[in-house]
Every structure is written in structure tokens, then in C-alpha cells.
Write a structure and sequence with these properties.
With 273 residues, the protein is α/β, with parallel strands linked by helices. The protein has 10 helices and 8 strands. Keywords: Hydrolase.
């Protein structure tokens, strides 16, 4: 365990192994432990780094009044500079995929390769008419739910609404993975939950069509259809192809089917070498 001072707080990170830096960025209301299977698998061949973004896990609350994907991206840049992690491979899931997209848009020449898992470019992951999104913000209702029921129940309600829309499980197919995800949500305070949601809701993906950094886009076969559509658009922009579908997996694809996810990533990393 190690820490790095950042504006208004302290960033927690973990580093293992030697070789090409491989940096994993978790999803919303999760933490670096979500990559435990990847840390075990790749630490023998890579310098593996995981971190807890502001508001999450062991990093916890910071003094910033609001968060943004751009702020998370700047924190990642500071961490990579601190570690002297030259030309890393970046891998992000969900919110983490937004951070990797933003990093790639800002510093394409400094990244060896990028993996986008369960990738989203905007939230909600559907197209809205111009100028409408600010008026549809669920933040007031979300704040009320958090103050009356807490982060866990609020998150369950969010999952239930997605399940209603998609007709099936979305977050994970594995009850143990879902339970770990709920434990991570329980570590996030009411105030930090809102700040993280606001960062997700406000972000619109930067243009990546001109970026030539090698990229891999993956999602679970049971991923929600709107997320699959966003993944397909991202893959067309950065990988000139279609996303790789991982069987027996939903949104938390790296935890639902770590063996298949690791194999696909390993093949991609091998092409980079």
C-alpha cells in the first residue's frame, strides 16, 4: 500500500511486479480491489498498478467540492509521473473507461496501449437531444434517496431500474461478484456518492478518432444493449473494428469471467510488445 498527496486529499495506490507498466482504473463506487484477478495474473510479467479514485475505497473523501472525469484523469497523470511509469498500458472499466478515454485524448503519445472494458462514453448511455440533459438530471432524486436510505439501497434501486430496462441482470452474473461490489458501495459516503455520480453524468467523451494508440474494447456478452452500442462506437473510433465479447459475463466483465478477460488482454499486450 502506498499513497500520493493530491489536491485536497491523498490518493491510495498499489504497485507490484516489474516490466511494462500496466495500470488498472476501476468503475464507479468500486475500488482497486476489483482488479484482484488481474493483479495476480499479470504481476509476474508486468509492473501492475491499481488505484482508488477520489471518493472511493481507501482514498475516500477529499476536500474538492465536486468531481469530474477530468479531475480523475489529472490525478492519474500525477500518479504516473510520480511512479515514473513511462508509456503505460491503461485499462479502465465503466467510469474507469471514461478516465482512460480522457487520458488518451490528452496524452496519446505517452500511452503504449489502452483497454476499454464495459466502456461508456456518456451517462445515461443513450443519445439525448442537445441542451436537454441538464434538465433531466436525477441528482435531486438521488440525493433524497441517499439521505433516506443510504448508498447501498440507492445503488440497488439504480440496478433495479437498469434491470427493468434491459430485461435481465446487468452489473454481474455472479452473486459473489455482486456482493463484493455492494460492499464497495457501502464504503462510499452519501456526499462522495453524489460527487462521483455528478462526474459520471456530466462527462461527454472526447474525440478519439485521430488517436493512433493501439486499443482493445471488450464487454460482457450479457452487457446492457445501450452500453454495447457505446462500446461499438468507441471500438470503431479507436480500434477500427468491433468490441470483443466475453462469454458468461455482464458489466463487471473482468470479475465475472477473469480467465477469458485475462486471455484476451494478454493477447493484446503481446501484440504491443
Amino acid at each position: 500500500m502506498a499513497t500520493l498527496p493530491v489536491d485536497g486529499g491523498t490518493l491510495w495506490y498499489e504497485e507490484r511486479g516489474e516490466g511494462v507498466p500496466l495500470v488498472f482504473v476501476h468503475g464507479g463506487w468500486s475500488n482497486g480491489d476489483a482488479w484482484r484477478a488481474q493483479l495476480r495474473h499479470f504481476a509476474d510479467s508486468h509492473r501492475v498498478v491499481t488505484l482508488d479514485l477520489r471518493g472511493h475505497g481507501r482514498t475516500g473523501a477529499t476536500d474538492r467540492a465536486s468531481y469530474s472525469v477530468e479531475l480523475f484523469t489529472e490525478d492519474l497523470r500525477r500518479l504516473l509521473t510520480h511512479l515514473d511509469a513511462t508509456r503505460p498500458v491503461l485499462c479502465g472499466i465503466s467510469l474507469g473507461s471514461m478516465v482512460v478515454q480522457e487520458y488518451l485524448a490528452r496524452h496519446p503519445e505517452s500511452v503504449r496501449g489502452a483497454v476499454f472494458a464495459g466502456a461508456i462514453q456518456s451517462m445515461p448511455p443513450v443519445a439525448l437531444p442537445a441542451g436537454v440533459k441538464p434538465f433531466l438530471s436525477p441528482l435531486p432524486a438521488l440525493s433524497l434517496s441517499l439521505s433516506t436510505t443510504g448508498p447501498r439501497t440507492t445503488f440497488r434501486t439504480m440496478l433495479a431500474s437498469i434491470r427493468t430496462a434491459t430485461g435481465g441482470p446487468w452489473l454481474s452474473l455472479d452473486p459473489a461478484v455482486r456482493a463484493r461490489a455492494m460492499d464497495a458501495v457501502g464504503d462510499v459516503s452519501h456526499e462522495e456518492f453524489l460527487k462521483v455520480f455528478d462526474a459520471l453524468y456530466d462527462y461527454e467523451s472526447s474525440a478519439l478518432s485521430g488517436v493512433e494508440t493501439p486499443a482493445l474494447v471488450v464487454h460482457g456478452a450479457s452487457e446492457a444493449a445501450p452500453v454495447k452500442r457505446q462500446s461499438a462506437r468507441l471500438a470503431a473510433a479507436v480500434a477500427d473494428g468491433d468490441p470483443t465479447s466475453i462469454p458468461a459475463a455482464a458489466h463487471l466483465v473482468n470479475e465475472d469471467n477473469p480467465r477469458a478477460f485475462n486471455t484476451v488482454c494478454e493477447e493484446f499486450f503481446g501484440r504491443l510488445d
